[in-house]
Amino acid sequence: MPMRTLETLLGGEWVVTGAWIDVHDPADPRTPVARVPALGPAEVTEAYDHAERGFALWKRTSPFERARIMTDAARLLRERVTAVAEDLSTEMGKTRAEATAETLKAADFLEYYAGPARQGYGTLVHDVRPDTRTHHQLEPIGVVLAITPWNDPLITPARKLAPCLAAGNAAILKPATDTPQAALHLARALHDAGLPAGVLGVVTGRGADVSEALLGDPRLAAVTFTGSNEVGEGLRAALAHTNVRFQGELGGKNATVVLADADLPAAARAVAAAGFAQAGQRCTATSRVIVERPVYEEFTALLLAETAALRVGPGRAAGTTMGPLAGARQRDDVLAAIERAVKQGARILAGGGRPADEALAHGCYVEPTVLGEVAPDLDIWREEVFGPVVALCAVDSFDEAVEAVNDSVFGLAAAVFTRDLGAAHRFADEVECGQIAVNTTTSGWDVHHPFGGFRDSGSPFKEQGEEGLRFYTRVKTVALHFGA
Fold it and tell me: Annotated catalytic residue: which of 283, 364, 393, 433?
């Protein structure tokens, strides 16, 4: 595949610089497939200059015009789905089906938030004073910095930019260095739909080169971030002595509980889907499976059969059901975590290494891996791995299962499989996670579902749905006295 040179969006123009960042295909990263501009601090300041002017215009733009632009951008993404999905699969390794689904879901986010963009934000409230009408209204907060990860390089920017723009803010998008192409497709759709100059700028650059300029600009009103706990906590600390809002969607160690009365084949299919789709590189991926002891052996056999049916290969290849990890460092980190788990006492039931197929030798592949005999004190049970690794543990009761789910610093997503309605409700009430699933996967939350975790999985601000607008708006109360 020939290498392409891409431009980035600043001030409504598509620009290049003298420095570049190479983009690689994790199925075979030996040769770059694209390059994007490597912006520096001067271009970051320029992006804020444009955003300041763009915000002044955009916040006064008719909500109906905002909605039109977002709806048109959604249409353009759908029309361009084949090309967008191809680039997304190439830079990140997702299968064609996964990349196509992500592109269409990104369009859904734009279309969904075009609805609230058309509605009034506010509520009439009673006032004790006579001849007075009081209301509170929601307003945009200003220039928002969105820092997005490599694992969902299109849908995560869309999840953040859609409510941000619908509310009338300007945005600076900093996509992951390894996967910038998808974010540029989103920016181009918005630009081609008529987004005014400066309302969105895309900073393609290395974090070490641009982070100080991105976080230190006095015009910054809010930072929304999805990524690792280490980076998220660093951002939170950097902003602690400012009035800049912070929203973080961080790590997870998501558990699925399989009770003795569960539909075991359905549970095995769901765990395989949630654990191995996208090569396990989802914040909502199932990585811990807690099974009641009477059905542990039967469930394990079913899960191993589902795992054996997976076909590992390049994301763009026909028949591939699990692509490579996003890069060599990610692959090596996952393999090291598996090796450490075995040394600590876990037993490999499936996978555990790199595929033997010589055609995959240069790619960033890890076999879908199932680990058994995993004790709760093992690192693999407690630390986020972010790869195709599922660890199994047996318990003796519902209460023990809930205790095992909650025995974590994370609290993003959890699922239970059961036919007992009472157990389902108790699970939803007692588990300390922001997302609870019953008889379905820990992943797969739609655009209108409020999304976010508890504990170390994130900040109090939710994303998606109506809740997703709260972070991007401020409340102003207005009292109008009309008497003498």
Answer: 283
